[in-house]
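To make this tangible, we now present a fold written out as tokens:
***
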Amino acid sequence: MSIESFQLHLSSSCADAYNNGLTSDCEFYLPQIEIPSNFHIHVSIENFCMPYSFYNVNLNNNSLTYLENNTAYTITITNGNHNINSIITELMSKMTRFTITYNSVTNKMTFVNSLYDFTFSSLSNCLSLLGFSSNLSSSSKTLTSDKVVNLCPYRCICIHTNLKTFSINKKYSNNTTLLASIPINSAPNSIIVYENKNNFKSNTFTNNISNIRIKLTDHDFNTLDLNGQHWTITLQFDIVDFVF
């Protein structure tokens, strides 16, 4: 097995195209990379660096639908980096018949309606953020979180490419483009840095590459909105003689 290697240094600020206008979904057009058919290209991330500029409340977890007196209401929380106080302030400004409190000991919220019993609908996408399961109904006009509040909903950043890596994700078994899952161990508005310390590589089972698409998502494969900020990555390609 013979190996030759080269590295590709990319910055989203130099991308040739941005899908949906997002810096987290970029395409880079490359000089044609073509190798003999008895070789494969292995790819790995050497390092990755990006700003923690995406919000903990965004389009994927900012809506609350509730039923009250046979009427459905939907409110939207403003996108941003919220703490529990800003969440409560905004919810109470838009849910005028509700009093909302937070218990820091149990990490749970309580909603009290002044007139009616109510139900939080499964159409909401912010329930886990607020500590609720779906389709929960109040008792005596009061409803307390059955789980706990989670204002840090992101556990990792998933890096996808247009190259087949054949990595396995239990939830999305048909997606074989995941290159790496990077734990988030930095605070919002800081820098997330990753180095491939175990030197893991993926066999792309290809011998021809002309472009690279890199897409950054959360653990549910929702594309991250970096609010216009840019990232850098170094990819290593190893040309490996394929031996049966």
